[in-house]
Every structure is written in structure tokens, then in C-alpha cells.
Design a protein that fits this description.
Layout lengths: L5 H10 L6 E3 L2 E3 L3 H36 L2 H55 L2
Antiparallel strand pairs: 1-2
Helix pairs in contact: 2-3
Length: 127
């Protein structure tokens, strides 16, 4: 067996092709991370929308009750409706901020992977 020289190793490094996809069950596959993230995000958004709809239904129910109530009972219902509306508004704001932060973090993560892959290739494909 002949010992490889530094030049041989450099040539091997230049000839090396690094596959960016995962090798799963005998074949290369694109990452499912993006699809998984989108699926989880859709489920989260559907749950948040269902909770928002439940809040809005409760507010509407209380508004109907307030229309038939008088005096102190009406004032108490209106106070409860106001508190629920405030909670709903805060929840919407928090979800918006969470969505923006999650999207930004995911974008940075994916870009970081691309940069790492490019740096790795650059290092090993250099002359």
C-alpha cells in the first residue's frame, strides 16, 4: 500500500462531494424540518384560532345576557365582557409577537445551516 502524499489528499478533498441531504433507508431525502415546522405551526395556529373563537362566542353570549339584564347584573356582565375583550386583545398581541419571533428564529436557523454548509464546502474544496 502506497502512502498518500499531501497533494493526494488535497486532490481527494477537491474531488469530494458533500451531499446536503440526509441518507435515510438507502436513499437521499430532503430535510423534513421545514415541512415539520410548517405543520406544527399550522396546528398551533388552528388551536389559537379555536380558543379565540371560543372567547368571542363567550363574549357574544354575555352581550346577549347583558341586553336582557338590568341594573347591577347588567353592569357586572358588561364589566366581564370588557375584561374578556382585554384578555382577547392581549392574547392576539402575544400570538402576533410569538409568530414573528418564531418565524425570525426559524429563518435564522435555516440561514445558519446554509452558511455552515457553505463554509464546510469552502474549507474542503479550497485548492
Amino acid at each position: 500500500m502506497t502512502a498518500l502524499t499531501f497533494a493526494d489528499w488535497q486532490q481527494r478533498a477537491r474531488d469530494l462531494h458533500i451531499e446536503g441531504r440526509a441518507f435515510i433507508q438507502g436513499e437521499y431525502s430532503a430535510s423534513a424540518a421545514g415541512a415539520d415546522f410548517e405543520a406544527r405551526k399550522a396546528v398551533f395556529e388552528a388551536r389559537a384560532q379555536a380558543q379565540r373563537a371560543a372567547f368571542e362566542a363567550r363574549i357574544e353570549e354575555l352581550n346577549r345576557s347583558a341586553a336582557n339584564a338590568t341594573g347591577e347584573a347588567r353592569a357586572a356582565i358588561e364589566k366581564r365582557v370588557s375584561a374578556l375583550n382585554d384578555d382577547l386583545h392581549r392574547g392576539r398581541n402575544q400570538l402576533d409577537r410569538l409568530g414573528e419571533a418564531t418565524d425570525a428564529a426559524w429563518t435564522q436557523f435555516v440561514e445558519g445551516l446554509r452558511d455552515a454548509r457553505a463554509a464546510f464546502r469552502e474549507t474542503y474544496e479550497r485548492d
